[in-house]
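Write out the 3D structure for:
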Amino acid sequence: MLGKGVVGGGGGTKAPKPSFVSYVRPEEIHANEKEVTEKEVTLHLLPGEQLLCEASTVLKCVQEDSCQRGIYGRLVCTDFKIAFLGDDESALDNDETQFKNKVIGENDITLHCVDQIYGVFDEKKKTLFGQLKKYPEKLIIHCKDLRVFHFCLRYTKEEEVKRIVSGIIHHTQAPKLLKRLFLFSYATAAQNHTATDPKSHAVMFDTLQDWCWELERTKGNRKYKAVSVNEGYRVCERLPAYFVVPTPLPEEDVPRFHGHGIPIWCWSCHSGCALLKMSALPKEQDDGILQIQKNFLDGIYKTIHRPPYEIVKTEDLSSNFLSLQEIQTAYSKFKQLFLIDNSTEFWDTDIKWFSLLESSSWLDIIRRCLKKAIEIIECLEAQNMNVLLLEENASDLCCLVSSLVQVMMDPHCRTRFGFQSLVQKEWIVGGHCFLDRCNHLRQSDKEEVPVFLLFLDCVWQLVHQHPPAFEFTETYLTVLSDSLYIPIFSTFFLNSPHQKDTNMGRESQGAQSKPLKLLTVWDWSVQFEPKAQTLLKNPLYVEKPKLDKGQRKGTHFKHQRQLSLPLTQSKSSPKRGFFREETDHLIKNLLGKRISKLINSSEELQDNFREFYDSWRSKPPNYHGLLLPHIEGPEIKVWAQRYLRWIPEAQILGGGRVATLSKLLETMEEVQRLQEKIEERHHSQEALQAEAASLLRTSARLSSLFPFALLQRHSSKPVLPTSGWKALGDEEDLAKREDEFVDLGDV
């Protein structure tokens, strides 16, 4: 069979070669070009998508040590994606495409998903950018979703190589204008297509009624009010058209400093305490302006801080927490652990896996984010204080921390509808600059910081530790992270609601022109068929029971808690007036002045934190109440499904958490069948659980990284790493090393 073969070679330990692979000599490729061309897969274009350049006789390579296997086909570049079109006989079978994305195929890379491009010149790998004087014999593309593609161009015509390489470099790396994003081309071409109502998937928070509904849901309407003072963005383009402020706050104060220095409501808890956020006032050198700002903030503070009825704790995230630079640096190191070119590289880095993981500091940053959220929850829950989060623009770390607090405290945010509404409220409408933070326009690498991905990783820690508490799965979080780079959805491609409203208006002054309708990512039917969508819903989710009168509220479940917090005991400091000179601290924070210490002493903060956390740990968990993560050393783990899914060597065939889930679902199915016989009726929820169990059971090659691992080759490398080892020991030593491999896959 033509289309698969070995071309060239490389060093490293030789791996067993599958017996079914045919070996094609390089000179045979052009001789059989006509035959293969007839078998090429048709390029499917989305509405508004245009073909820019292409090259034939390209080998998509799978690198395995000393051999280089590949699929012969065409490499194309459009204004939406890079796509490889191979021999249709090499297509995956039905089992392996059950989780197929309808927008992005397994051999497709959206232009926004390209991270780095490398060329191989005389066996040397070099970064490609700008105009090239010499063109590579192999193209390597590293993607932001951590896929790695190898394309051999050795047998492609020289002119086609120049066109495709130059085209890919230009369209993925050159700075772009906002209006040139494919988002708008697609919206213009597909505006007559029917789409579901976005409000059926999430509360969009684009109307005053949406905010009033959220206030009523959280019982925040007693102390806070929704305002329309920014309607038409006449006060500030950074803020949404509608938002919520404390009821006593005069609306005329909002425009004073273009929305800066105004406490904006995020969420209210059952005790009546609220989480607020505020952006800092611009730094000024003039003493007169500084005095005006001080007087303004003093008035604001007196409005929201009225002891003993209303007490506010300020939390300055700009100076007392993470920096965006720390997040950027840590993730840059962390992602390199998973951008693996071949099997040899995997096993070479495996020997120093834990030291490399620790040196990246990514897991430590996750731990710090979760710990900060717990500290704020302790103030809201145990001390009955309002908490005011401070940040320069209140659009990065404020979004992260406030969202984590709500996921932990509000069970509504642990449902899919509630979580999607939370992201809309705190991130999309809250003004997180996705366009800049994801660097979609390729205008500044310094602005590219994965703050939202950090949030999803923190949520994954909670999902991993408390599966029954969440209606959605880790697969849901994984595909949500992938959707950051699919430019047919406006959700993650704009900086603010103002930018969206400005750019979706009429394209011309003609009477027949219509405002653009931009898709929301929350309509998962755009990307997945109904059967695949069942993998986004957690069949083990424990719904809140409808209790009869007289029943105790809350259902408790047994939970294993193995380790204590790694916090050292310290002498409890004498209680002191927490709010003494609080006004001056708040003003200094907002005016950008240096603060030498936290408002609370560190000893008192640790004591309060530990007492609160230990108290929660001593009680049986309530999956519909407060839910805190374990943040001790080994409890913070690598999100294996997202980061390891494209590395065959990291898979545990027939093992991992998915194997346990499969058995649990089979047991649930059996229980449901017995219930049906007794009750003689069916429930829609049971049908969905049965569908999910069917997907797991019918999979021919179930692995620990299901469902993504099915789309990848299965490594023929032996389970045990041999690189760096002189010899294998006895059978007992062999078993120990096998255990080490299994532990790595479950990190």
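The chain has a mean pLDDT of 80.
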